[in-house]
UniProtKB/TrEMBL annotation:
MF annotations from Gene Ontology: ATP binding
UniProt keyword annotations, A-Z: ATP-binding, Nucleotide-binding, Transport
InterPro entries in the record: AAA+_ATPase, ABC_ATPase_HisP-typ, ABC_transporter-like_ATP-bd, ABC_transporter-like_CS, MetN_ABC_transporter-like, P-loop_NTPase
Residues covered by the ABC transporter domain: 19-253
Species for this entry: Nesterenkonia aethiopica
Gene3D superfamilies linked to this entry: P-loop containing nucleotide triphosphate hydrolases
Stated name of the protein: Amino acid ABC transporter ATP-binding protein
Pfam families to which the protein is assigned, alphabetical: ABC_tran
Amino acid sequence: MTEPELAEHPSAEGGPAGVTITGLHKAYGDNEVLKGIDMSVRPGEVVCLIGASGSGKSTLLRCVNRLEDPNAGTITVGSFEATDPDVDLDAMRRHIGMVFQQFNLFPHLSVLENCTITPRRVLKQPKEDAEAEAMTQLRRVGLEELAQRRPDQLSGGQQQRVAIARALTMRPALMLFDEPTSALDPETVGDVLAIMRQLAEAGMTMIVVTHEMAFAREVADRVVFMDQGRVVEEGPAAEVIGDPQQPRTQDFLRRVLNPTDVDIRD
């Protein structure tokens, strides 16, 4: 794929949104998944969350968008306090784009219709305006010529790029990515990561749950390593991935970066 050019991102009112998380707890019954998370993301910063499956990364991301309700703690996204019982969730979510592991496209709608349905229904945009914005975002992810196709006519990587374009049609101030390449064939992973890299370079605030260590090292401003619902280590990407200080971080990265060297008796 020829990488499309992404201009400086014209994000939502007020520019990129920072995130502050304080004392965040989340449990499902007796299973406490998040155990007092403290974390911040500056406006325009890219933070990658890494760690083993089940460490709470995806749950943390879903709490930021209030797809999950925390049991305790506070989350602020830009000017919104996400954990305030009286927060206008619809208004807050207009400023947040989220891309999931699965593409979640409507199979009966065309690519263009998938990208216009939310602006038309939520923002009440006229059809012509919504389609113009959708085509702009599809052009950014290199899929303008596929606007009339249905999702089942696209590869997995193309569908995920449509999902990114769909999120961008709302002009979000914050993008959340939950392992966006985990369901893709290896050949298509690079196309999606290239789009994310260009979004980062354009100044989009991003929180990315990922197992792509090379992407995290190259693109993230900071990396946060989570284990069993806690932040174990965080810092500049090159330091956390290249020279981790905590034994648990060292063990995780040894297994991820050098899987053939791992002794199964460890």
